[in-house]
Model the fold of this input.
Amino acid sequence: QVQLVESGGGLVQPGGSLRVSCAASGSILSIGAMGWYRQAPGKQRESVATITSGGGTNYADAVKGRFTISRDNAKNTVYLQMNSLKPEDTAVYYCNSGWGKPRLAWGQGTQVTVSS
Done:
């Protein structure tokens, strides 16, 4: 099964930017739509963004206009560019198959902390 490895998280001040990456061990084209999810302390994991194999995108209302999902099929990598970060964006970020229907084993995630 495809393995997912997230990276790029860190500590950033409110209003700052960060880009996280997800490298897959196999073809993301074979998976189809890919998505980013996040889980904040004490909360359930939620879908943040989805990108189809053709490049169409969809975002949760909480991040619309601030986050941008993209993919590089040749590199089997999915990205999430996060701008205008807020403290409520603090969470562990994961990637998986998209549309809020994760089918793959979860990776370790990458911690994003927004704090002054």
The first helix runs from residue 28 to 31. The two ends are 40 Å apart (CA to CA). The mean pLDDT is 97.
